[in-house]
């Protein structure tokens, strides 16, 4: 595709930065519009309230980020991020059993979201044709009715009057609360969607733990065993020799007041986990931050790929298209895969920019679909979670549970599961004959 003049990106979070990196190769000028102030360091920002909670960059996300920003992984480690063996240094209680621990030869990077986002931002500042405009709120799209085309935005900066900016491409990465959905509705454009009400709450705090020579993990995850248990938690080492503790609860299992006052109240939540491992670790821990909370009432996948007469010149990605259940840690990695998909789509097509946009929306639907299905299969283990259920749900849940239980003792099955969870192998790899036979054998002879 021939180089275009200008692209505007709404939202300067991770998805926005990734989009800017890709578009900088195809456009003379890339302008990122961000509501927040410019970051002064790797600290949580107001517009990303989830930034104070545990985040994970899966293998697909890690490899893709390195492709987009060569050398960034080393910079993570040089500034304190923790490099771990993905299967040796992880202690994981899942569906009532502890996962097998073995050396699979994979590495994972443990760090906070602000630390990761800050390093991406440093790379972005080195790209000469990318500009970030901070404290800029997008008020409306500029729209050509007869051509059904978005050709710009109307923005307002703090203390200034509104102004209009035109561009060849508008990219919305502003997140689940994006104005695009409302704007489309006002124009009578229906967006098919799938929605699941999960009533999820996150409560997090960062600690300093006393040295312990017997501590044989870098990250410990205590997942609930649904439908009987609704609360789970994770303790993970992060940069600065600190540990972040995140407790999550489905279906409003964590009330508005719980975990929001002090480390003591967080301890009470940790005591409710299916195992007391994290509770014991925190007995002599020193709190380094206040307790923070974050709530995700629902997850939603907007089927932009199915919209008829979707406006030309407008591209959506990241949480603007699909907000996934954050418990599974796949959101950032999906954004990376989407960015790589955009890069490939723009590089392959010789047609119009609009053809590339349409192709991109279709392609990311194929990226999202298996992950969405995997996530809601787990979420629907809670009968009170509302949403459209597949007629094959019970069978899918039964099979997945067998895989989880076998992951506590069968290295091949767990190894395959790790690759699927990290988005580097398709989900149907868990149906290969060797695994299928192990599942059936367990069902018949357990």
Q: What does this protein look like?
A:
Helix 1 (14-23) runs parallel beside helix 4 (113-124), helix 1 runs parallel beside helix 8 and helix 10 (393-406) crosses helix 12. Strands 4, 5, 12, 13, 14, 15, 16, 17 and 19 form a nine-stranded mixed beta sheet that branches. Strands 7-2-1-11-18 form a five-stranded parallel beta sheet, with helices on one face. Strands 8-9-10 form a three-stranded antiparallel beta sheet, with no helix packed on it. It has helices at residues 14-23, 59-68, 72-78, 113-124, 179-186, 263-270, 277-281, 331-348, 353-379, 393-406, 411-421, 433-445; strands at 4-10, 27-33, 82-85, 90-94, 97-98, 107-110, 130-133, 136-144, 149-157, 163-166, 169-172, 193-208, 219-222, 231-238, 242-249, 286-287, 292-302, 314-316, 322-323. The chain has twelve helices and 19 strands. Strand 13 and strand 14 form a beta hairpin. With 446 residues, it is α/β, with parallel strands linked by helices. The protein is globular, with a radius of gyration of 22 Å. It folds into three domains: 4-46 and 115-192 and 303-377, FAD/NAD(P)-binding domain, CATH 3.50.50.60; 195-297, D-Amino Acid Oxidase, subunit A, domain 2 (D-Amino Acid Oxidase, Chain A, domain 2); 393-445, no CATH class.
């Amino acid at each position: 595709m021939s180089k275009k003049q200008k692209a505007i990106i709404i939202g300067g979070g991770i998805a926005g930065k990734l989009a800017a990196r890709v578009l900088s190769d195809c456009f003379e000028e890339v302008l990122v519009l961000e509501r927040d102030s410019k970051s002064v360091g790797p600290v949580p920002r107001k517009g990303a309230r989830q930034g104070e909670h545990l985040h994970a960059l899966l293998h697909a996300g890690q490899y893709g980020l390195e492709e987009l920003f060569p050398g960034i992984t080393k910079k993570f480690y040089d500034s304190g991020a923790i490099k771990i063996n993905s299967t040796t240094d992880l202690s994981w209680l899942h569906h009532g059993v502890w996962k097998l621990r073995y050396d699979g030869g994979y590495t994972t990077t443990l760090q906070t979201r602000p630390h990761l986002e800050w390093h991406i931002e440093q790379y972005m500042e080195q790209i000469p044709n990318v500009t970030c405009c901070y404290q800029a709120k997008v008020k409306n799209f500029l729209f050509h009715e007869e051509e059904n085309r978005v050709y710009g935005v109307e923005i307002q900066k703090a203390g200034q009057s509104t102004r209009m900016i035109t561009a060849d491409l508008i990219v919305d990465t502003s997140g689940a609360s994006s104005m695009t959905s409302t704007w489309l509705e006002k124009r009578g454009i229906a967006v098919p969607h799938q929605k699941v009400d999960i009533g999820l709450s996150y409560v997090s705090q960062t600690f300093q733990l006393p040295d312990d020579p017997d501590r044989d993990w870098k990250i410990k995850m205590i997942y609930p065993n649904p439908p009987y248990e609704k609360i789970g938690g994770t303790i993970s080492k992060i940069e600065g020799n600190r540990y972040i503790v995140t407790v999550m609860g489905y279906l409003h299992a964590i009330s508005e007041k719980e975990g929001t006052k002090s480390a003591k109240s967080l301890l009470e939540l940790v005591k409710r986990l299916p195992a007391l491992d994290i509770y014991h670790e925190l007995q002599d821990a020193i709190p380094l931050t206040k307790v923070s909370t974050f709530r995700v009432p629902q997850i939603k996948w907007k089927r932009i790929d199915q919209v008829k007469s979707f406006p030309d010149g407008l591209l959506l990605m990241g949480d603007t298209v699909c907000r996934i259940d954050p418990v599974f840690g796949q959101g950032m990695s999906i954004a990376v895969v989407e960015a790589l998909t955009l890069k490939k789509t723009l590089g392959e097509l010789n047609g119009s920019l609009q053809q590339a946009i349409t192709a991109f929306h279709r392609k990311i639907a194929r990226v999202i679909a298996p992950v969405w299905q995997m996530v809601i299969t787990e979420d629907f283990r809670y009968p009170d979670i509302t949403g459209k259920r597949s007629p094959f749900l019970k069978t899918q849940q039964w099979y997945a549970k067998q895989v989880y239980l076998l992951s506590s003792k069968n290295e091949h099955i767990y190894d395959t599961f790790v690759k699927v969870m990290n988005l580097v192998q398709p989900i149907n790899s868990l149906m290969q004959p060797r695994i299928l036979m192990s599942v059936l054998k367990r069902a018949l002879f357990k």
